[in-house]
Amino acid sequence: MEKFDTTGMKLFLIKLGEISLKGLNRGFFEKKLKNNIKLKLHPCRSYLTREKGRFYLYVDNSVSDEKIEFILKTTFGVVGFSKALVVEKDWDEMVRAAAELIEKEPFADGKGSFRVQSRRSDKSFSMRSLQIEQQLGGVVLDRYPEMTVNLKHPDKTLYVEVREKVYLYTSPVDGPGGLPVSCAGKGLLLLSGGIDSPVAGWRMAKRGLNMDCLYFHAYPYTSDMALQKVKDLALLLGPWLQGTTLLVVNFTEAELWIKDHSVEEEHTLMMRACMMKVANKMARKRNARVIVTGEALGQVASQTLESLCFTDSMSKIPVLRPLIGMDKNEIIETARKVGTYETSILPYDDCCVIFSPKHPLTRPDVEQQTKSYNNMDIEEILDKCVNEAAEYPINYI
Known about the structure:
By secondary structure, the chain is an alpha/beta fold. It has 13 helices and 15 strands.
């Protein structure tokens, strides 16, 4: 590891998962993750270095632990992390650090069971892992004689990693895993005010996709509260997406045109087709190579296999549907985890429900519906939607 001054800084040990399996490409993914973490921490004083499947993040003591934990818990590529103490490979220093750690939570109450778990990556260190565990276990029992040892299912654990230096910690936190955002290129998320699309965006960000968000607004048929709801969803997604841009399209004119130039049972299909056309135009403008939607097979009339095939026929770039095989309960569970659920269920409708037919066509013929779309002669209106779209930058945190 490089030499640098860590005075006035605290250490977080970051564990990597899938990235560590990337072979010759591992450096590319590690660099992306490193940059993503540093961007979120800017302008705080920090230093991030790497050693054998670990990142070591030093951050100025003035930055709260809560802020650092929020950043790491919303950064894809981080499998887990721990606030740690680091000492030289000296036994007295190791004992001192262990004694300092167990004065704090979760050991501070002095009750329950514990274990010491040692990992000796540096095999030249004079003590074996079992010896380290036994000796530091004695340090714990000297301080808290009422505690008991439980090697399989302890209430608390003191972790020790012997590497170039020795790292000790007690409270590992799970990260989101996945791949660093932007390592898989750029896409465009169709973000509605519902439960599904934010989850779709989250799942694709977990696979490394960087995304702008596109929302279709149809004032006055959809209210300003509906727009604010989507802005709030974009803000909630922002940390997961490494920041994003919310693109708001005024879709009112297009909606009214569809209503007047297509038969009622086709209104929803024509609306979806127009949205896909706008998304393609916007994707070219924003250099996005894929479109992401929150559609799930069979969930509503417009998401039958035939309807999805028709929607796809309107796109010149791939359409990704990460929720396609999930049921509603699975999607809701993920939305709660991401933190978007409570906002998504606020009672403000998006433009998808405007002029919805009582009996929508659910088994459309692609060729016939393509003719219906072409007969609307709506391209000029859709170009206007793209050119006049509003942009709202969303920060990293």
